[in-house]
Amino acid sequence: MPGIVGCTKRTASIHEVERARGQLRYAESYSNDLLFEDEQICCTRTHLNIIGESHCPVINETRKNYCWIEGEFFNKKELVKNQQATKFSEATLLLEAYRKQSLEALLQKIDGYFTAVIYDSEKQILLIFTDRYGFKPMYLWEDSKNFAFSSEYKTFLSFDQFKVRINKEALACFLNTDQMLGDLTWFSQVRRLNAATICTCDLKTNTRTEKRYWTWAKVQQQEISFAEASKKTATLFREAVAKRIDQEKIYIGLSGGLDSKAILAAAPGEPPLGAYTFGQKGAEDIRIAKKIAQFKNMDHQVFLLNKKNWLDNRLEGVWKTEGLLNLFHLHAAPFEQKMQALGPINLNGVAGGLILGGRGINNENRRVREADVIQEFGDFAHLQKWEDPFYEVESSGPYFLDARMRRFTQCGLEELGKRVEQRAPFLDNDLLEFIFSIPEAYRKDSRLFSSLYKNEFPAFYNTQPWEATGFPLDNSRRFYFFGRKIFRAVRNRIRKGNAFSLANYANWLEGEFGWIQRLLESPEALYRQLTPIDFYQSYVLPHRQKKANYTWEIGRAITLEIWLQQVFHNRFKNSKELFQLKTNLK
Known about the structure:
By secondary structure, this protein is of the alpha+beta class. It contains 22 helices and 18 strands. Strands 1, 2, 3, 4, 9, 10 and 11 form a 7-stranded antiparallel sheet that branches. A 6-stranded antiparallel sheet has the order 5-6-7-8-12-13, covered by helices on one side. Strands 16-15-14-17-18 form a 5-stranded parallel sheet, sandwiched between helices.
C-alpha cells in the first residue's frame, strides 16, 4: 500500500519526484518502478510487489497512453468478460476503457481498492481517480502554477517549490474530533481526493475539473422480508470473502467482535488462513480469539502490548500516517514486522459493525441529516458536507462510511498497509449495494448480524462468545443491553481501570510524563505557534495529578507536536530519537 507520486513539469523535476518516491518507501523489499518523464509530466510508483501490476506505467503504444495503478480489482474476471477479452490486467482494463471512451462506465463496475492515473500524451490530458469508496488515498497539491498528486502528501515536502502552510481549521478539527473530515489535510494547499472521483487535468490550458463517476443515489430501495434479506446477505458476504482469498497464505486480524469472526466463518472450505490478535494480557479480544482459533484448529499468533513495548514504532507510525491518527490508535505499530512475517495479505473486518451491525443508526429509513452530523462531529460537522448528493440514499450508513471509516479507521489500514496488503470483505460492491437498499431496521442493534450467525454459522452462534457481552450470540439478544453493562462493570472492577480492554494507555502514561513534558514544554515546541492551548498545563498536568482523564487529549497533543517536528525539523521519525529524548532527561 505505498503508492504513486507525480506532477507537471513546471512543478518539479524528475529528480525531485525520485526523492519524493523515497518518502513512500518504508522497507528495502519495496519494488521501484521506472521514473517516467516527458515534456509535460513526471510520474513513478513504489509498491510491495504482492498484488496488482508488477511494473508501471502500463502503456498503450498505439495511442501513447500510460497508466499507473496502486491496488487491485476483486471482480477482474467479470470485467474482463464484459470487455470480451481473454486476459486483462487492471491497468490494461483501464486503458482499454479509456480508448473506448467508456472509462466512467467501467469505474462504476469495479469492485476494488485502488487509485490510478492515466496520462494521454497526445491530447495532453491527465486523469487521476479513486475507487468507489475512496479508502485508498490520493492527495492533490495545486495552485495557479503547480499541480502534483501522491498517495501520501508528505511527499510534496521533496518538491523545492512546496512551502508548508498548516491548516488551522484542520488542527482544530483533529484536536476536537480525533480525525480529519471532508478533504482536509494538515497542509492548507493540499487536499484529499474524494471517493468515486475523477480529476481531469488539461495540461495545455492548465485547467482542472472533477466529477463523481458514481453516487449512492444509484442504490434503489427494495421491499424484501427480513428472512429474505438475511439469506441474501449471507450469500453476498460469502462471495465477498471468497473473492479476497486467492493467495497461499492470508492472515486475519482476529478480535472478540463480530466482524473478523464473520470473515473467518464465511471463508470457503479449508482456507489457508492464519490469525493474529494484539492487546494487553487479559484482554477480552485475546481470550475470545484464542477460543475461536482453537475451535477452528488454526494457527494463531498473540502479540502482547504492555507498559514496556507500547511506544515501540509509534513515532514511525505518526510519520507513516502523516499525523492523521492519534498515536494511541496505532495499536499494531510494535508488531508490524512480525505481522509481515506471517503472510503477505491481511483480511480486515473494517466497517463490519457499521454495515451489518447497524452502528450509528439513530432513525430508520432516511438519509443522513444535519442533526446526525452535528451529534457526531459537533462544530466541525460542516467540513463533511452531509447535503452532498453523493449520500443521496435512504440510509445514514454511507455518510458515516465516508466520514468516519474513510477518514479515521482507514488510517490504521494505511499504517499496516506499508508492510502487508489489506483486503476488506465488508467493502464489497454487491454487498454494500444490497445492504443499503433494504430497511434500516433490519440492521439496527446487530439484528442482521445475529441472524447471519444463527442461520449460516450456527457453531459460532451457539458456542463462541462475543466481546460486547461476554456471552455467545444465542444469548446476546437477551443479554445485550443489560448483560453488556453488567459484564463490563464487573470485569473492570476486578482489575484496575480498563485492564480487560485492548490497551491501558491511561495507566501506561505514568512512566512517560518526563519526555512528554520535555516535548510539549520545550521552547522549541511548534504547536504553540498554532494554538493558544497549553497542552501540558491543560491536559498533561491535570492527568498526572489524577484530576481528570485526558488520555486521548494527550495522545492528540503529542501526535501533533511529533508530526510538526517531523515536517519542519526532520526529527522524531523513529524510536531511536525517542530513546534519546528520554535519555536526555537524566
